[in-house]
């Protein structure tokens, strides 16, 4: 798995545990400065990201889905993702030869 290193991520819990108040305040100051610069560039001040620890056993699979989606433009890389409630409703309605996908939105 080859990953571009575009981001710096640390657990807030680690910052609170290992940094003194001055160091913590410096990080907050720097993040504020970055947010101001992004706003001046017409961007959102802060983006939110989904972070997956590469030590997790599912990390490779998730990464492959992301790569496939970026290459093809297909949402979820062609993989259908449903919540447990959506899946139960889909299976129930499938038994009655009904358009089971019709109700998927209801259970999101």
Write the layout of secondary structure elements.
Blueprint: H1 12-18, H2 21-40, H3 59-72, H4 84-94
General description of the model:
With about 110 residues, the protein is mostly helical. The chain folds into two domains: about 1-50, no CATH class; about 55-108, no CATH class. It has four helices and no strands. It has helices at about 10-20, 20-40, 60-70, 85-95. The two termini are about 30 Å apart. Mean pLDDT is about 75; it is low at about 100-108.
Features:
108 residues, 4 helices, disordered C terminus
Tally of helical runs: 4
How is the biggest beta sheet arranged? none
Instruction: Identify low-pLDDT runs.
Output: 98-108
Question: Strand fraction band?
Answer: under 5%
The average pLDDT score comes to 77
Distance between the termini: 31 Å
